[in-house]
Amino acid sequence: MDIALRVPDLVHSHELRLHINKMPLLGTQHLQKHRELRLAHLALSVMTMGYTWQEGENNTVEMLPHNLAVPYWEVSQRLGLPPILTHADAVLANWRKKNPEGPFDMENLELLLSLPGGDSVRGFFMVTLLVELAAVPALRNIPTVINGVRCGETEAVARALEDISQSIQDMTDALKLMHVYVEPSVFYGIMRIYLSGWKDNPSMPNGLVYEGVQIEPMEYSGGSAAQSSLLHCFDELLGVKHEAKSSAFLTRMRDYMPPEHKQLIQDISSQPSLKNFVQQQDSERLNQAFQHCVTKLLHLRNYHINVVSRFITVPAARARQLRDRSQDSEGEMISRAPTALEERGTGGSGIMTFLKTVRDQTKDAFLPERRTEMNHQS
Q1: Can you spell out the DSSP letters for 272-288?
Q2: Distance between CA atoms of residues 334 and 309, nearest Å
Q3: Is pLDDT at 134 greater than 80 in this prediction?
Q4: pLDDT for the residue 37
């Protein structure tokens, strides 16, 4: 924990690898409670990202030392999580309230552990946490929808869908805080590499050997919003179907979620079709509630595309321009960013194509009359 708490400083002084190499090998048998295991996974994840990327994209390592790799692997196996920093670590298990009795908001939240990038790291993880928090009413209403469909309770389903719509709108509003708390040049130029993995990454084409675990290198994707269970749940509930390539990536990201989250998504997907139920009932309120939900999900995905454009696409274009010119400090930060990540998400997806495809597939979830309207508009 002493090293994990100092990762940003130790990366900055180029001493993190040195400190980790000298650590004793600690056993994991004394970690019993779920919370202890999650904190251990977070700490070992942050240390692993710092260790791997301490010198940027050009001086990466091929092996994680056994005194980090072995406990990391053991904790990961017990939790059913991969041995890399995931959304479940950096966002879901990485916060505390300054005042335990106080509100769940930006002023009263702080990170447990951080990565290089200063206040923007806190902003990025905390805003993402607030998006997750805004989704709680929607998640709580999903069983109500499913039970209502099974029992033929049109009004109950409509009411629950109206609550889900509002919750998705609140997620979009929470996401808007990204522009307040995260600096695009810091996100693009400093933070992003520490969220990247060693699968489909030209900087680490062979993956990473976890010393003392197995001899062959292993490949894992970096952190991605696709590792959040929220939109997977909404897609399954509303019957959004993704095309083959996007679907393969999204399905693979489920292996980066806590097993219970992955199970919930599968449980939702195995229920009778909500869309069929809506089409079979003759209820204007139900029709509208369903369409409204899809509309709100579409708006959220459109807004996410805007955020990604501001934090990745625009700085990437600027980085290409700046490489051969004299630079101001912001420019220098952007142009130092890893070239391998230029048009990619940290999870390894070619980001804009992927997000736009996923957004477009969301439109197909509309009931037939609305889909025609939407296609005329777009």
Answers
A1: PPHHHHHHHS--HHHHH
A2: 15
A3: yes
A4: 98
